[in-house]
Amino acid sequence: MTGIGQVAVRVDADAAIGLGHLRRCVTLANQLRIDGFTVRLITGRSLAPAIEPFAGGFGVFTLEEAAGRESAHDERQDAEATLSIIGRHPAGVSWVIVDSYRLGNQWERVIREAGHRVLAIDDYRDRRHHADLLLSDIDAPFDPALNGAASGARELTGPEFALIDPEFRYDDVRQKPGREPRRLLASYGSSDPTDETTKAMQAIRLLRSDPECRARLGTVDVVVGPTNPRAPALSRAAEGIGNVDFHLAPGSLAPLLRGTDLFLTAGGNSMVEALAMRKPCIVTVTSDNQALMVDRLNVRGAIRSLGSHETVDPQGIADAIAATLKDYERVATSVHSRAIFDHLGPARVCRVVKTMSREERCF
Which pLDDT tens digit goes with each residue over 90-109? Predict the structure, then answer.
């Protein structure tokens, strides 16, 4: 073992799960490596070719290769397969980071009993854990009664612990609102399972037919992720709308975000990254794990939430865009004046991990 300790990151990414978990884990892994830890990623199955570039150059080990099965529905089997890769009773500091809604208390217990410390990343507050450290960028506490570790868990909760890559840092000089017409960016994640991209493009078509809105709305960038099965159809649809630039699986959203005035997105990682850049956001909740964060940000006036995807339609999106563009200077000034998120979260988390690594093990 080299460095000050070893870290294994158990995370999955595919067309169903998306890239959000993997991307935030890689962001944290990069900081851990900078701080002297040896890091490797563990996935249930091999990453698809379209997803591999997002692994950040880390060595990726799979449960399929280690145990001959993915152990997709059994926490204990998954934990045992993970231990077949990282070993039991390490001689030095060893952390296992888990970011998965299907792996919780049972999985974490097996890992901790084998001598590793567990850092669990979780967007919910009703799941049971057996962790040393609980991490979430939502400013709501975990329930201590739901953590089974005898020593309890230290909690890092709130926007200051968001796992945001430095490429999304706020640039005060470059982020001043531009003049009309405004540039708009639409991106709903790597797979967009609820097909919000189609709704957004239909909304743009509606706005293009209105003279007042057409004057306020400039170029629209539409981003479709690497695991979206509707990419060809979306590309053809974009061609039929005036002044729309279509982007298929760009390596990073940061350059497009930096140049946009208004962002249409879901309530996941991309929303958080956009707010770190202090970009006005119109947000649709596309999965249950996004609801708590979106609700809190909406109450604070940091975003404009359209609610659940089940009730969002193209006209509603068009109305929200039109209202935001009409009052854009006030909206943009409000977003620019507040620093809810920044790019320093990974460093803050790593400082805590290093401090806890120096302490006596408390299993």
Answer: 999 999 999 999 999 999 99
Which is nearest to 25 in space by CA: 48, 1, 2, 58? 58
Distance of CA 233 to the CA centre of its chain: 26
Q: For the residues of 312-350, what is the DSSP string, one character each? A: --HHHHHHHHHHHHHTHHHHHHHHHT--S--TTHHHHHH
Distance CA 94, CA 24 (A): 20
The tokens for 167 are: 């490429």
221 burial (CB, 10 Å; 0-12 / 13-18 / 19+) is buried
Map tokens 């981003």 to a residue: 223
The predicted model scores a pTM of: 0.94
> Domains in the chain, please, with CATH?
5-165+343-358 (3.40.50.11190), 168-336 (3.40.50.2000)
DSSP H helices in the chain: 20-34, 63-67, 75-86, 105-113, 196-208, 211-216, 231-239, 254-258, 269-276, 291-299, 314-326, 328-336, 345-358
- DSSP SS3 for 73: coil
